[in-house]
Specification:
Elements: E1 8-18, E2 21-30, H1 35-41, E3 52-55, E4 58-59, E5 71-75, H2 82-93
Parallel strand pairs: 1-5
Antiparallel strand pairs: 1-2, 3-4, 3-5
Length: about 110
């Protein structure tokens, strides 16, 4: 990397603000930029308190310093626990029509 003030970071910011929608920004920030700086640069700072942010899938705080090539990911909080949602779907479908052993061959033993 070049020394001095001319060095910059290339950062990708991906945010899912609504279901089924992902927005991406390619940013060039100064060395020493933080997660908060990246959110500010793409206009997400007002929503930062509602978003869960991570760098390459690892949770990150607003004061964390970014490195060149980082991907900052911002997601909405979960509205339903995934385990609970799966249980509810399974209960609504019924045990015989869902799951690994739903399609059995005629005459086979249970579980095969």
């Amino acid at each position: 990397m070049a020394e001095g003030g001319a060095a910059s970071l290339r950062i990708t910011v991906a945010a899912s603000l609504r279901p089924g929608e992902v927005q991406e920004w390619q940013l060039q920030l100064a060395q020493g930029a933080t997660v908060a700086d990246a959110l500010r640069a793409c206009g997400l700072m007002p929503q930062a308190d509602r978003l869960a942010c991570g760098i390459w899938g690892r949770p990150a705080k607003a004061h964390e310093v970014l490195r060149d090539g980082d991907r900052l990911e911002c997601c909405r909080p979960l509205t339903v626990d995934p385990k609970l949602a799966r249980r509810q779907r399974f209960k609504a479908q019924g045990a015989r029509v869902a799951g690994l052993f739903a399609k059995r061959r005629p005459g086979s033993k249970a579980g095969y």
